[in-house]
User: Which sequence fits this backbone?
């Protein structure tokens, strides 16, 4: 019998939470031969990532994963051998009670948010004592050997390399999205939360000597883009040219196609956690829009990652990169920061490739989860 795993996902950040858990569930099934149920409270968000799914189904199978709707009233279910509560979501009371009744209590893991902060290494893998006696542990994704690693399917980097090296592969993918950039244009993807600095950045791109083609999948940043363009609505396929900048609105694509989009671009602006990690695997310069927290608590996480990521960069390039990320996340002039980044472009490209290789040398998140489970037996 295959080991059974339950993953619970409460959708908070639109597509970040479900994005991570859906990738994880698929990998556990495909690469580790596990029986995985993914419990999701918002199937509409899931369908955006997996278009063939049924938003009205209480139970369905997609790519080997059993997808279950997690309703407000718990329907009852036999607990799995491993139970993952993603991002500190609260498991149903009825499910926890059923866990207590098992002859062998399940291994209960709290899969936490990704962070480069120093304290994460000390907390990763620690037990979280439960008054009811169940075994629960903290599991932190991360960027160092003392954390849980990053999501990375075995085929991810070979597929990325194949798209970039196979003749016409990149052009064929982009053509399927209706994208035909002018020769020599820098291709930029933009997936972000609302940001008042967008217009300032776009002004700099439009005034630049080098042409840019900005690809914007449907999402929350479209309101700010429409303000800059003077358009109330921006349907899929919208194409505008202003100065050296071409702006194009893309559909919200599946996870696999979003990966291909990142691989096809020269620079990727991403947000949250899921697209942030996928941009790192793309091995290209990037810009992170971190999820906003009260009292600007997210700034500490931003600075912690910058401190780690910029290691190996020259002081000038590291300063320029940090200035750009801070401008985007702290409402500072983006145009000035973007212009100051340009002299360091080639160094940042090489650094992104080196970072990708260094992270790929470490075990991935799914593998480390499975190892943690086996060590607990």
Assistant:
């Amino acid at each position: 019998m295959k080991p059974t795993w339950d993953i619970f996902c409460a959708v908070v950040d639109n597509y970040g939470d479900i994005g991570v858990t859906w990738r994880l569930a698929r990998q556990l099934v495909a690469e580790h031969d596990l029986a995985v149920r993914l419990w999701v409270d918002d199937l509409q968000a899931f369908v955006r990532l997996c278009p063939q799914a049924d938003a009205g189904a209480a139970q369905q199978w997609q790519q080997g994963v059993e997808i279950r709707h997690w309703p407000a009233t718990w329907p009852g279910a036999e607990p799995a051998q491993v139970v993952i509560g993603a991002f500190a979501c609260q498991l149903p009371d009825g499910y926890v009670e059923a866990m207590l009744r098992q002859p062998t209590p399940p291994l209960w893991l709290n899969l936490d948010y990704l962070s480069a902060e120093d304290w994460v290494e000390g907390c990763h893998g620690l037990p979280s004592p439960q008054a009811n006696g169940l075994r629960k542990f903290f599991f932190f994704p991360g960027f160092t050997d003392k954390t849980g690693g990053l999501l990375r399917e075995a085929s991810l980097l070979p597929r990325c390399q194949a798209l970039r090296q196979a003749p016409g592969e990149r052009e064929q993918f982009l053509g399927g999205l209706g994208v035909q950039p002018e020769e020599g244009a820098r291709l930029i993807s933009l997936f972000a939360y609302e940001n008042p600095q967008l217009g300032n950045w776009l002004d700099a791109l439009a005034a630049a000597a080098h042409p840019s083609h900005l690809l914007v999948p449907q999402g929350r940043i479209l309101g700010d883009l429409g303000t800059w363009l003077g358009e109330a609505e921006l349907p899929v396929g919208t194409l505008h040219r202003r100065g050296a900048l071409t702006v194009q609105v893309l559909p919200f694509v599946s996870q696999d196609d979003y990966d291909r989009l990142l691989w096809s671009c020269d620079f990727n602006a991403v947000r949250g956690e899921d697209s942030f990690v996928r941009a790192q695997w793309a091995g290209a310069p990037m810009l992170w829009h971190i999820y906003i927290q009260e009292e600007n608590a997210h700034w500490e996480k931003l600075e912690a990652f910058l401190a780690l990521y910029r290691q190996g960069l020259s002081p000038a390039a590291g300063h320029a990169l940090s200035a750009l990320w801070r401008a985007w996340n702290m409402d500072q002039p983006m145009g000035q920061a973007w212009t100051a980044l340009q002299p360091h472009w080639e160094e940042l490209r090489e650094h992104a490739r080196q970072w990708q290789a260094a992270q790929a040398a470490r075990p991935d998140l799914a593998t480390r989860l499975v190892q943690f489970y086996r060590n607990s037996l």
The first helix runs from residue 16 to 32. The CA atoms of residues 3 and 11 lie 26 Å apart. The domain at 156-360 is CATH 3.40.50.2000 (Rossmann fold). The mean pLDDT is 95.
